[in-house]
Queue: 3 jobs
Job 1
Amino acid sequence: MDLILWRHADAQDGMPDLERALTAKGLKQAERMAAWLKPRLPEDCRILVSPATRTRQTADALDLRYQVVERIAPGADPTAVLAAAGWPDAERAALVVGHQPTLGLACGLLLCGEETELSIKKGGVVWLSNRVRGGQMQTVIKVVMTPELL
């Protein structure tokens, strides 16, 4: 299974948190990452998005249908993100557009076996896959990309 974790792009400060919108910089970050990501996504990829305005705006840059998932809102437990995506057994790839520290913790859990605090840059993507090798389940890093590297 492929699991793509996409942190929302740069957003305005303020409250209420769920209503924070992307900045002009964030809109450009989202557009650049979407232009890179869209042709690489598996055709049947499920796109799961936090209900926050900034994550929906980030996902909108893909111009693809997505599902808003309440349980991956800001402050979500990293295991809720993995469960929503169906990791590791889903038959289809999943793209999760979410937040720090949740995405970083989920990534750390998959790569290190515990909720290690990894940081994903704003607008950045971590693309993971899994495989069985020698009878052991392994998490494979396929891509780590940031808007600045595009």
Job 2
Amino acid sequence: MVERQTFASKFVPHLVLIVGVCIVAFPVYLALLASTYDAASVQTGKMTLVPGGQMIENYSRIIFSGTNSSTREPVGTMLLNSLIMALCVSLGKIAISLISAYAIVFFRFPFRMTAFWLIFVTLMLPVEVRIFPTYKIVVDLGLLDTYAGLTVPLIASATATLLFRQFFMTVPGELVEASKIDGAGPYKFFVDTLLPLSVTTIAALFVIQFIYGWNQYLWPLLITTRDSMQTVVIGIKKMITTQDALTEWQLAMATAVLALLPPVFVVVVMQKLFVKGLVETEK
């Protein structure tokens, strides 16, 4: 039986979606507008809903020169630091989780499940809980103001290990036996069989972990003492000073808009694989 759809049943869902998109997008549009005006117009509230004429000047200044007050480094350097951190964290989490899940599922060794549950228990220990001992180790190793100090403590991921383990457990045993008959060793089976099957899961985790690494604030704030190593999230916070009259809001909004672009780009480019990796059940 085919249910007849009325005009209201088609119009109302679209209206709700449009209203929701407008509510979410309007603050971003305001940030974009503010980045095209001068400081006086933004601070006095004389902004209109039409872009101003200072866009090229504001963006060129913030990308290549910085604010020269709250942060002396250009946003281009901050974006590069954030990009390196996000890529290293996301790729490192995926690589370590793939290997650990592969060992837990396909190798039989003593205390195999104990190792898995120890990894799983670390879900209850976020960075904030273990921040002091982690910071102490990084300082002792001389990793302050380095990319290794920014990324290595955040690489391990129990969530990604759990997801890969659950996926690997769905791989038919016949496929493993066929690979052994073909003479494939553990490495060849992992590279030629499991990795191609895991593409959608890897893509979904990459998007999630990239955004996680890009949005990190507390750890980069602790581990970086030089302006040249700070990330864009820290840069935005430093631009917004406690004294409102000193805040160059047009530059802060321009930085916020630039900080949105890489995560949005990753989500748009990998959208199909991301959705497929989250909803696909039969591999």
Job 3
Amino acid sequence: MATVHKITPCLWFDTQSEDAASFYCSVFPNSRILQVSHYGSAGPRPAGMVLMVSFELDGQELMALNGGPEFTFDEAISLQVDCETQEEIDYFWSALSAGGEEGPCGWLKDRFGLSWQIVPVRLMKESMADPDVERGQRVMAAVLRMGKLDLAELRRAADG
């Protein structure tokens, strides 16, 4: 019998887990809320309040927990969105940064404080693994000058 290994990220929110999961599902294709559970009389939060939301973003299962104000997101964890085209980069950048903060190098924080990396994955992986070390360095230097990544500019940098 084969062992199934599964990792499900759990995102800690104060009270916004259901709003966040709904928002993320509206941004990503092939996404849906799987289950919503509520606190009961045992607490520690008010009975009936949303406890956890299980949801799927384009095939990746995640959990959102209303755990309280004790913890908040920071850049030590981020979710990477692998994009093939500039149109995808533009779409995800615009949708996820709305009400949040745009950052450097393809990073942003959404309105819930969660960090995302919006990247042209094929170009990034190919250029960083290229035997021509200078090619990768040119791409990295270009990335470091950008907020939202510009695929055409990154390709020009890669080609020298």
